Amino acid sequence: MVILFMAATTRRWASHSQRWGIGIAAILLAAGIATAQDTTRDMPDLSQPLTLDDCIELALQYATNVRTAELSLNSSEIGVSDARAAYLPSLSTSGRYFANQNLDFGFERENVDWSVSADYLLWDSGRRKITLDQANLDFDSAELALKRTKRDLVLNIVQAYYRVLEAQQLTDLDQELLAVSQGNVNQVQAFVDVGRSIEADIAAVEVRLANDELRILNDENALQTALANLPVTMGLPYNTPLTLAEDREFDIYAQLGQINRYAKTLDETVNLALQQRQEVVESELNLQFLGLSRKRATLDRLPRVTASGDYSVDLDGYLDDRENFQNHRSWNAGVNVSFPIFDGGVTRRAVERADLNLERAQEQHDSLVRGIALEAQNAYLSLLNAEKRLQISSVQVRNARLNLDVTRERYQQEVAILLELLDAQTQFGQATVNQVQAFYDYKVAQRELDRAIGKEAP
User: What is the residue range of 285's domain?
Assistant: First the structure.
């Protein structure tokens, strides 16, 4: 429907319009500045020690990939609204100023007109419905992508967090081992002074002392690297100082020696992964999307029906002759039907191309399913391996501690030589290091399996 308004305007109206335009522009500019200021995020409060849950919560707020996935979800939601709008009539308005050999320049009724129009698509052989269905599928895919992004981020945070704790534990352990080695040097020096040891013994304990100092240097470097990696993974600047809460999990395990073993079988784990992994659902949605695209391509051969009309009032003539309104109005309506007769095979090739895209997506989906099954199997086996390593390391620590106590007593009684004592200390230190590494590898393996089976992020 088109309503044509021809109305006189004045310079005063133009000046008011300019002032209104400037005012509206200023308001929009201020709103834009306010919006830009709102999108900037302040640094979180990091004055208190952070637990693993704290780091995950901060990462979900600040990590760039999560924020990007959220923006993609918002964009998909807009696409759904656009697809729904196709079922509504379209309204538009326009105005113009004109002059010719019969009309002088100036802001008179004859120089200005204005119109409002509306169109509505009655039937398009189902094209709008397919577009809306595809928009909904795209929104669902974006929602799954956001969940997948959060799930992957949680695993990255867990890995970075536990690597910091592992490095801290190893650094503390290195300090204890270094103190033992320094005590050995002092003790051997005292024995040399009284004739119970020889100079070669001092060289042996000093070599062990140097090795412990080198290990401290390496582990402290690993700690600094881990402390720099954690904030970056969380979406914070690399030099953000973080203090982690005291880790009691390892101490509790070291005292009790108990862990929660994974109870499901391999087949149950693989089936769970295929049911829960967002990638599988995303791929299935993509297959549906391409199927709709194929159907949409076939609909291009069908007709399209559009209704249109206009209703016009000549305000210029009406204002001069208000007694005869019927003489200054007009209307018309019509229905337009269009469909292709010959397009050089473009429509046919579009259907063929859609078939190829659908076949290729099906192959990729099958490959994805196989890859996820393999990933779940590897994560399952890695967790079982980590559980066994942790069990073995506990036995090694217990035996190494017993051997060290016996060897130290024998050395004090001059039944064992210094080399035996140093070997016992080395075995105990290495067993303790293995236990720390096995414990945190086990904690990471648990979360890797959670990711492999598609467990959602908190």
Answer: 50-88+125-303+345-452
